[in-house]
Amino acid sequence: MKYKVKLPYFEGPLDLLLFFVKRDELNIYDIPISKITKDFLEYIHLMQMLDLEIASEFIVMASTLMQIKAKMLLPKPETETEDEEDPRTELVKRLLEYKKFKELANDFSKMEDEAGKIHYRQYFKCDARDYYDEDELHEFLKEVSLFDLISAFKKAFQSSKEKGFQEIEIPNYKVEDEMENILNRLKFKDSFSFNEILKDYDEKLKIIVAFLAILELAKLKKVRLLQYETFGEIFIERAFDAQESYASAI
Amino acid sequence: MENLKSIVEALIFASDTPLSLKQIKDIINGPHRKFPSNGETEGISEDDIKNIIAELNQKYAEQGSAFRIIEIAEGYQFATLPEFAKWVGRLFKEKNKRKLSQPALETLAIIAYKQPISKPEIEAIRGVNVDHIIKTLLEKKLITIVGRAETIGRPLLYGTTKEFLKYFGLKNLSELPKPSEIEEIMKDEELENKYNLQNEVTEDDSEENSKEN
């Protein structure tokens, strides 16, 4: 049998369970746990198929349902059948509680509509007085004329002009050059630590370029990167034959 | 009395928040105003004010005014009649008319009936996380922090505000709609079992049954 499934949005596992109860006209006090568990798990599988992130709440509910199902399957001890509580009781209580508030939310929605039709007398918040306190306001609007505004504008304009221009240097570091530097270092040493590079370079940009160069070399398998502990020192180790020409790497 | 009527009218008119009967009474009876000549040192009572407001509303109705003094959020405030909502709404450009979402309404309902209530308690009822909703409701000033629980972790407790009452057109919290009969059923385990039997036979909706009984 094939199903065409339209997936509505559920607020949570309780909402989903209530949906099943309503859809199949189930008696909420006597939920067929096996059926509802099956439906619930199907829904979760569907979510998985659609690559939806499944909230942990759904997983918890799935396990709760399965636990109840398992409990109901176990034979009850003959002696205390009367006192034995239905394993579903807790779930039914929660469902009813949630149902109550879900229904109240509908009432609230109606009230919201009705109340929205009534407009209370209030101040329009478009008065300058709403934005400044009394003292500030007097300070702010004391005999201000249009000319004050123009001169203020002029002043602001002038001061911004005075700042002039600033020269920006174009840095002259290239990742390629740095790769060569690093390979050169490794010609004489089998390995060195990243900190050694930091010591030689004082400029931030240079360090970044060196870092990129190392990553590039690692990608080309010309160096190996080693770190012995988390946040520990990073070692760059030669991965090419010292005799071999390194020029091909670049 | 005519004078008092105008004073009450002026006070409510000038206020942009609901004025309680007590506030009005205290203003009118204030330290400088006494009525010794009447033999009543008490001054005006809250019932008097209530009557005055009723008289004022009567007057507005007779004049065919578009507004009334409405009891809302534990106080009284001038408001336009609902039939003018269409036009007044345009005046305010309906900017605040975005309705609350279903999850927000559910959460709000839980807080309204169970206040003061902590976040974990709300989440236990709804079965999902309510962090975001709580934040939104706080921003909208529909709920507020009313204290901390004495339980482990001392979680914050939430309750509804006067804004909440106003938003839903309630005079006070006792005006909240009564929860459906479900709760009453839950209280009585005996009855519950009876419904079980009935439902098994008739397969009727349990709510229908409870109404009939």
What characteristics describe this protein?
heterodimer, A: 250 residues, mainly alpha, Arc Repressor Mutant, subunit A, 9 helices, 54% helix, B: 213 residues, 3-stranded antiparallel beta sheet, two-stranded antiparallel ribbon, 52% helix, 12% strand, globular
Write up what this structure looks like:
The complex is a heterodimer of chains A (250) and B (213). Chain A is mainly alpha-helical. Among the domains of chain A are: 13-75 and 84-111, no CATH class; 175-249, Structural maintenance of chromosome 1. Chain E (Arc Repressor Mutant, subunit A, Orthogonal Bundle). Helices cover 54% and strands 5% of the residues of chain A. A three-stranded antiparallel β-sheet of chain A has the order 1-3-2. In chain A, a hairpin with a 6-residue loop joins strand 2 and strand 3 (234-238). In chain A, helix 1 packs across helix 4 and helix 7 (175-188) packs across helix 9 (204-219). By secondary structure, chain B is mainly α. Chain B folds into three domains: 2-91, Winged helix-like DNA-binding domain superfamily/Winged helix DNA-binding domain (Arc Repressor Mutant, subunit A); 102-175, Orthogonal Bundle (Arc Repressor Mutant, subunit A); 182-212, no CATH class. Chain B is built from eleven helices and five strands, in the order αααββααβααββαααα. In chain B, the strands form two sheets. A three-stranded antiparallel β-sheet of chain B has the order 3-5-4. In chain B, strands 1-2 form a two-stranded antiparallel ribbon. At the A-B interface, helix 1 and helix 4 of A face strand 1, strand 2, helix 4, helix 5 and helix 6 of B.
